[in-house]
Specification:
By secondary structure, the protein is of the alpha/beta class. It contains 5 helices and 7 strands. It is globular, with a radius of gyration of 17 Å.
C-alpha cells in the first residue's frame, strides 16, 4: 500500500497498543478518529502535543472523535517502548498509542526520525473509514489542536448536512459545500 491520501480508505491494521490489541476499524466503530502519526516520542514537542491532546480529550469525545497515537520508533521491543513513553509523559497516555514498528506496510506516513526532514502528521478518519484530513508539519512546528478540533467539527457538518460549520469564534462561513457539478449554480457565496 502506498502513502495515504485524502479520500483513501484507512488501513484496517491490527497492532499492539498501550491500551491492548487494536484492530483499527473495529476500534473506530462509526465515529471519527484523530491519528497522531509521529516519528518518535522522545522529543519535548511530541510530549507537549500528547499532553495538549489529552487536555482536549473531552472536547474531542463530545464531537464523537477518538484519539490514537501512532509512533514509529526504532525500538522494536514493545515493553521497552511503552516504558519509554511512560517515562517521557510521566505515565501512559489516556488514549491508545500504537507501536508502528509492526505497521511498516500500513500506508500510514512514517518519517525517518533521524532525518532532518522528519515530520509529524495528523490524520482524521471519518465513520466511513476514509481519510478526511491530513496535516503534515515539521518537527520544529507545534500544532494548534483547538483548530484541529474545529476542522473535525466542520468535516462532520459537511458530511452530515453538506454545510460548512461555523468557526469557534462564531463568524459566518461562506455557504453550502457543493460536491456535484450541477450544484454549482446553487452556490451561496459570501
Amino acid at each position: 500500500m502506498g502513502i495515504l491520501q485524502i479520500g483513501d480508505r484507512a488501513p484496517d491494521f491490527r497492532a499492539r497498543s498501550t491500551s491492548g490489541d487494536i484492530r483499527f476499524h473495529d476500534w473506530l466503530g462509526d465515529g471519527w478518529a484523530l491519528m497522531l502519526a509521529y516519528p518518535e516520542m522522545m522529543t519535548a514537542d511530541c510530549v507537549e502535543e500528547f499532553r495538549a491532546v489529552e487536555d482536549l480529550q473531552e472536547d474531542f469525545a463530545a464531537i464523537g472523535c477518538k484519539i490514537i497515537g501512532c509512533l514509529s520508533d526504532c525500538d522494536r521491543d514493545f515493553e521497552v517502548w511503552t516504558g519509554r513513553i511512560s517515562k517521557c509523559l510521566g505515565r501512559l497516555p489516556r488514549f491508545p498509542v500504537v507501536h508502528m514498528a509492526d505497521l511498516d506496510s500500513s500506508g500510514l506516513p512514517v518519517s525517518d526520525r533521524c532525518s532532518q526532514d522528519a515530520s509529524r502528521t495528523l490524520i482524521v478518519v471519518g465513520p466511513d473509514k476514509r481519510v478526511k484530513l491530513m496535516v503534515a508539519y515539521s518537527m520544529v512546528t507545534a500544532s494548534m489542536f483547538g483548530e484541529i478540533l474545529r476542522l473535525i467539527e466542520s468535516l462532520e457538518g459537511a458530511d452530515e448536512r453538506r454545510l460548512a460549520a461555523r468557526n469557534r469564534g462564531g463568524f459566518p462561513v461562506c455557504g453550502p459545500i457543493n460536491r456535484q457539478p450541477e450544484d454549482r449554480t446553487q452556490r451561496n457565496h459570501c
